[in-house]
Specification:
Elements lengths: L1 H54 L22 H8 L3 H29 L3
C-alpha cells in the first residue's frame, strides 16, 4: 500500500512539474510576443481604425488646426460619393493598381535574377 501511494505522489509531482513548465513556456512566449503585438497595435490597427472613423466624418486636414471648435460630424458615404465623382479618380486608381501589382512582380523578378547570378 505504501508503495502505491509513493507512485501516485511521484506521478502527481511529475504532472505539476510539467504544468509549471508549460505555464513558464507560455509566459516566456508571451513576453517575447508582447513588443511585436504592441507595435502592430500602435502602427497598424490604431491608424487603420482612426482612418476608418475619419472617412465617415467631415474632418478636413487642411483646416484641422484652424477650426478646433468645430466638432466632427458623421457624413456617411458623402466623402466616398464625392471621391468617385472626381474626374481624375479613375486615372489615380489605375496608377495605384498598376504600382500595387508591378512592384511585387519586379521585386520577385529581381530576386530571381540575383539568385541566378550567385555562384556557389
Amino acid at each position: 500500500m505504501e508503495e502505491n501511494n509513493n507512485i501516485q505522489t511521484s506521478r502527481e509531482m511529475r504532472r505539476r512539474a510539467q504544468r509549471n513548465r508549460t505555464i513558464k513556456q507560455t509566459f516566456t512566449g508571451l513576453a517575447f510576443l508582447t513588443p511585436n503585438i504592441l507595435g502592430f497595435l500602435a502602427f497598424t490597427l490604431l491608424p487603420l481604425g482612426f482612418s476608418l472613423v475619419l472617412a465617415f466624418t467631415n474632418w478636413d486636414i487642411r483646416f484641422h488646426n484652424m477650426f478646433k471648435d468645430i466638432p466632427l460630424k458623421f457624413v456617411g458615404f458623402e466623402n466616398f460619393t464625392g471621391l468617385f465623382r472626381e474626374p481624375d479618380f479613375l486615372k489615380y486608381f489605375g496608377n495605384t493598381l498598376f504600382l500595387m501589382l508591378n512592384i511585387p512582380i519586379a521585386m520577385a523578378g529581381s530576386m530571381c535574377a540575383a539568385l541566378l547570378l550567385v555562384k556557389d
